[in-house]
Each structure stands twice: as structure tokens, then as C-alpha cells.
Amino acid sequence: MIIDVRDLEGRPVIIGAGIAGLMTALELAPEPVVLLTAGALGGEASSALAQGGLAASLGDDDSPELHFADTLVAGDGLCDEQVVRSIVEAAPGAIDKLARFGVAFDRSEDGKLRLGLEAAHSRRRIVHAAGDATGRELVRALSAAVRLTPSITVLEGVEARCLLVEDGAIAGVLAAGATGDVVLQTGRGVVLATGGVGGLFRDSTNPLGCFGQGLALAARAGAELADLEFVQFHPTALDTSRRPMRLISEAVRGEGALLIDETGRRFLADMPGAELATRDAVARGVHRHLARGHRVFLDARACLGSAFAERFPAIAAFCQEAGIDPATDPIPVRPAAHYHMGGVAVDVEGRSTVSGLWACGEVASTGLHGANRLASNSLTEAVVTAGWVAESIKATTTRPVTANGVDAIPARPDPALAQNIVSSAMGVLRDGDSLHDAAAALLPLATGISASADPAAVALMMTVSALRREESRGAHSRTDFPTHSAVALRSRLTLAEAIEAAGSTTPLTIARSA
Fold first, then answer.
1. 20 to 30 A Cα–Cα from 36, which one of 8, 171, 203, 214?
2. What value does the mean pLDDT take over residues 187-191?
3. Structural domains in the chain, sorted by start
4. Where does the record place the Fumarate reductase/succinate dehydrogenase flavoprotein-like C-terminal domain (predicted)?
């Protein structure tokens, strides 16, 4: 049964209720808006799992210029400098805005914000809330604000399955709800705020439902996606059988924790930056050490000891669940897929290449992160760019649209088949032969109509992008192309181009760049 929600027609529709989606809805107020979430409000988002904080130059020894420089270094030549500068300059104001929405940031006894240090930051500039539960606190406060905002209609338990396109523009959303299918027609546009792709990997810190569905929605609608090959692997996920994997925040290393192996040797000591090098470098170091047959541990006994539980209560709690006491035991860790630098290609207003479609947060590729995200820039990006997206939508003229000829709703996506392929070919270290085999295996799934189709389509685009990039840069490391190319190019790709490339026998190169 299809339910046509006529009383909500014409309103902007936001898909996803993590920090990006919640902030966009609040920034649009008092404009009426519809917010879709597949689960309970705030319950299915990666945002709630974020242990790190928000990066902002608030210290007396810091400045937006230093934050800008650190971001560019981490991005390894692929950052959009205009976007980076705009976001780092807006970051301090974003912290103030969140505080006004009720976020309880950690403060010292004199009332000043407590600033932490994370890898590749040259200053203490990480703002936390509830210690190591920043994401949970942000989602709590913003969800409460959304509940109190009468202009926001929240549809919980409603999962977007496809975007409706008429005359090359977004006309609506076809979604699945508990009581039936839902058609939302909109002349004000759709905002994707659906998170990342970690669910396409066996080892991931993301919720299992975050397997790139927003990217699939955009790709099926004809949008260009950008920099899909760049997946950040967090080097210190708790090495147990639990999935998704628990994250041991980078802030623990910021407090002085060391990476050791089963012999107690600090095996990254000679690497520039050591434990506080960029995430891609640390992840590769840990991965290689594991591949040599070692185990890897994060040792916080000397730097934190009995103070660990006070400083990182959430991490201490789930370590205790696994039978580990961080005050006395080294914590077993391994890399896991954590954050996607790629996403829907958007301009400075968050607009995609399809009229009426915006993207915000991890699902978007703004150019802030380049080839490797600087720690804690992502939550800051989500808050800042949500405002930009909202202003863009407010300035957009309503178009009369009718979503004609609605087909049957697509099957609920199942990433299991794609996950096996992606986990083998698109890990910390990659090579051309494995990527070619992966593309060949993904192509029939992506072009089919089974529940595997959407996850496979995203995985295919990621794999083709990885094949095209015949170099190692940032989080993309090719063992058959171990060095940088002479010129740094961003990659852009449509689903049609990925399908054509995967079915071709000609070499794959970075044919499109921005």
C-alpha cells in the first residue's frame, strides 16, 4: 500500500537524523520541513557514536590560520582551500551555536572550554562533551531541540528507498514505513544527511545500517559523486568479535597512550609523528605490523592509569565489558573503516549536480577533508555546512512538481554480498588486480534488481574510483602505485560512467577531475 502524505507536500525533505540532518532542520526553522529517520530520532546515526569532538581554534595560542594549515597537510593535496578556510573560520561560532541549542560542553573549573589534542593538530583545539561521548551529547541536545520546534515534522521508522526525478529535477522521495510506503512530493528539494559507508566493510566502527544508502539515492538520480576511493580507517578500533567495532578515540593517544605489540615494543616510535601522525599513516603502520603476525595494543597505563575511567568513561565501560581494564591492561586494537572522505559532489551551498538535491555531513564531498580527514573536523563540518544548506534552500524558489508514475518500492537494501567484496579489495592497502576482480564481481549486482543492487552500486563506484587513482595519496594506498602522482586531482564519477568503465577492457584513469 502506498500512502500519499499530501499535507506535507512541497516541504523540503531531510533524509537522515544525525548531526547534519538535525542541524539542517533547525537552521531551516521556522520554515516547515520533513525529517525522515529510519529508526528512532537520533538512534541510527553514526553521529551518536562519535567519541572525538569538534575542532575549532579557540585557544589563546591558536588561530583559524593554524587550523587551516593543519587541515591542508592532512588532506594531502586534495583539499578545496576556499572551503577549508570558510569552515575553520566559522568553527568557533558553530561551538557557540551548539551551546545555545543546549549542548553541555566540557569546561574547566573557571568555565572555559576544555580543549583536547588529537593527531596531526598542532594545537589543543578539540572541544568535547561528556568526555568521550561528544556525539551522543550533541544528538541528545539537537534531538530535544527538534522535538520542541513546531515547524519540523519528524517521520520515524521511515526509510528512503529512492528519489523521484521529473524533468531532471528532484520531485520527491519514495520511502518505506512501518504502516506502508510513503510518497513525499516536494518542490523545495531534498537534503541527504545519511552518513557514511562503513557498513560495506566487515571491520567498521559505523552502525551496520550505514552502507552508503544516501550515495545510492544520489547516484540513481544521476548525481555526480566525488573522491569515493578515500575511506579513512581508524587505527585503534577495539579488537574483539563485536560488530560494529568499538572505537578507542584518538584523544586517548592525544593524552599520551602508546601503540605497542605483544612484546611491549613501541613499533611506530621512529615514524614521523609516531602515534600522533595522520590517521592514514598510523593505520598503515598498524595494519602492516598485524600482517607480520604481531598483535597490537594501545597502552595507556603510564599516561592515564587509574584516571582512565574518569577521562574516558564510555571507553572504559566497553573495555570492561570485554574483560579489559585500561588502567592495568593494554587494549587490543586494529584498523577499521571509520569515515568516508568521498561523497555526493556538492558546491559551497551543498548543492549536488541534480537540481533540487543537497547533501550535508559525511554523505557530502565538500572538499574540506581532501584525501585524509583531519581528526574532529567532520562534526564541525556538519554543523557549519548545515547552515549553508539551509540558507541555500531558503533562497530557492518553490517549483510546482508532481511525482508521476511511482513504481513499486525497491527492496530493502542488503549489503552482505557487496561487503564481502569490498572488505577484500578496498582495505587499508589495495592493488590493481584485486580492484579489477572486485569491479567485475560487483557489476552484475549493481545492474540487477535484487536487494544487493544499491550497496553494490556504491561499492562499484568506490572500486572504479580506486582503480582510476593510480597513485598512493592520503587514505588511498596502492601497493602497485606506492608514490604520489605529479599532479593532485580530485575524482568525480556518475553511476553510468562507473558501469561503463567496469564493463570496459580499456585502462581506468582519472578521467574527470575538479
1. 203
2. 90
3. 2-195+341-394 (3.50.50.60), 232-338 (3.90.700.10)
4. 457-485
